[in-house]
Design brief:
The chain is mainly beta. About 10% of the residues lie in helices and about 45% in strands. Helix 1 runs parallel beside helix 3 and helix 2 crosses helix 3.
Length: about 475
């Protein structure tokens, strides 16, 4: 804290006496300590005496230095200590027919990321020389309430930012989150996840006629296994093609948003950085899998998921974009040979699947281990195969989720010689069992069984599930 106060005092002296330099003031402070005598004055104490000698009001210097967790909207003319994260955005504005500029940069401590804005101040060259984690001191700044409801720091022409050279740099690891840990939508954040798709380049025309571009891909949460879309605007040519499916990456300076499907997604700009983190996946020694089921096409990117079996466990495998055609060539029971792949949370991720996957033969007999009956399915932790008969006509109803998103739930009563169950499917997956009439025989590939709160067996179709209608 004494070092922070010393910086504050020196900055105040520089404001009052612009004819002096920082080195000159520090020399005055050293000289004052020497004249008073060793052991009687600290640097801060000597700085007070120097300020008094120069006729500067000492009371205006004695200010508290705040941490990011302590700032509140309405504070003004204060000092804040934090660590520099990155420059987030540059822009121009017009107010009262006057053109101005602004620069947004991000600060952090062990628990917070806070936005700071400079108005009409040419600080970009200074900030660009500050590296991530560098401790800084902001003087004469104010705090306002941002659009997202969080405090943000504002700097004007009387504000300064100083690098605290003697303080230790901070790591961003404590503030790096997985998507499932993010609670506040709309905030700037640092997010990590496993790349879960190929990276697709997008080019488009902007409203002003100029050409824009973006890179789109998906990341998978290592804790929940959920997938999230990432869009990095103006990133083509800047993000190097050295990232592959299965890589654990960290995205710095992205904003969480609600996408068109009501799911969270992450948007970055030309100032977003992307880095590869330490790998945590395991590579399976097995190179041969059986296709248990191939799910339906889920979106405009032709995303499709298959369920694979290696003789012991089941895994999921997803393709999309330019690799979507590979899934079209598969049928249930196909044995495929796979190279250059990894397994992350029971998901198979293949590098360049068009080159590393080949169909050996159809080996449907190998699926006999996964074939069961309704009364036994809840004993398995894996998706299974069932032969059933429809006991009712399928019905559909709209369900409103907690997120506000509306989705269609399709339900069908089915049975076999061991019992009956309710078969359910959400959204597009349910189209496979729509318009089913009583008495129709079905084979359900990759169906999951669970007990309801009433201890009844429920069956659910997943993204990887496939329903075969048996002809009489």
């Amino acid at each position: 804290m004494d070092e922070d106060r010393l910086f504050t005092i020196v900055n105040q002296i520089l404001q009052s006496r612009p004819d002096l330099t920082r080195d000159t003031i520090l020399a005055y402070i050293a000289d004052k300590k020497a004249k008073v005598g060793s052991g009687f004055l600290t640097d801060v104490g000597a700085a007070y005496l120097v300020a008094s000698d120069l006729g500067i009001n000492i009371s205006s210097i004695d200010r508290r230095v705040y941490n990011l967790s302590e700032i509140q909207s309405g504070m003004s003319n204060i000092s804040i200590k934090a660590h520099f994260l990155c420059i987030s955005r540059k822009g121009e504005f017009i107010h009262n027919n006057t053109k101005g500029s602004y620069l947004v940069f991000l600060l952090f401590d062990q628990t917070n990321i806070t936005k700071a804005v400079t108005w009409n101040i040419d600080t970009s060259s200074n900030l660009e020389n500050i590296t991530t984690g560098t401790p800084v001191l902001l003087n004469n700044v104010s705090v306002r309430l941002g659009r997202d409801g969080s405090p943000e720091i504002h700097m004007n022409t009387s504000s300064q930012i100083e690098v605290l050279h003697n303080n230790t740099k901070a790591s961003i690891d404590p503030i790096t989150q997985t998507p499932s840990q993010i609670k506040n939508i709309g905030h700037f954040t640092i997010v990590k996840g496993y790349i879960d798709s190929s990276m697709r380049e997008i080019k488009f025309s902007k409203k002003d006629g100029t050409q824009g571009n973006a890179i789109q891909f998906f990341i998978r949460d290592e804790n929940t296994n959920s997938k999230f879309r990432v869009i990095l605007w103006n990133a083509v040519g800047r993000i190097k093609p050295t990232f592959n499916p299965g890589d654990l990456i960290r995205l710095v300076n992205v904003q969480s948003r609600v996408g068109r499907d009501s799911n969270m997604e992450f948007h970055g700009s030309e100032l977003t950085t992307m880095e590869k983190m330490q790998q945590k996946y395991t590579t399976s020694p097995t190179s041969s899998f059986i296709a248990v089921s191939i799910g339906p096409i889920m979106d405009e990117d032709r995303r499709r998921t298959a369920l694979l079996y290696d003789g012991n466990e089941t895994y999921t495998w997803t393709t999309s974009g330019r690799y979507a055609f590979i899934m079209d060539t598969l049928t249930v029971g196909d044995e495929i040979h796979m190279e250059n792949y990894t397994i992350v949370n029971n998901q198979v991720i293949v590098t360049q699947p068009d080159k590393n996957i080949s169909i050996i033969r159809n080996n449907a007999e190998a699926l006999s281990k996964l074939t069961t009956k309704i009364s036994e399915i809840i004993k398995s932790n894996s998706p299974m195969i069932l032969d059933v008969v429809a006991l009712s006509k399928s019905k559909m109803r709209n369900i409103t989720l907690k997120t506000g998103r509306s989705v269609i739930l399709t339900e069908l009563s089915v049975g076999d010689m061991s019992g009956q169950a309710e078969l359910i499917a959400w959204g597009k997956i349910g189209e496979q069992i729509s318009e089913i009439l009583p008495g129709r025989r079905l084979t359900l590939y990759g169906v999951v069984g669970k007990l309801s709160p009433q201890k009844e067996i429920n069956l659910q179709l997943k993204e990887f599930s496939f329903v075969r209608k048996i002809s009489d």
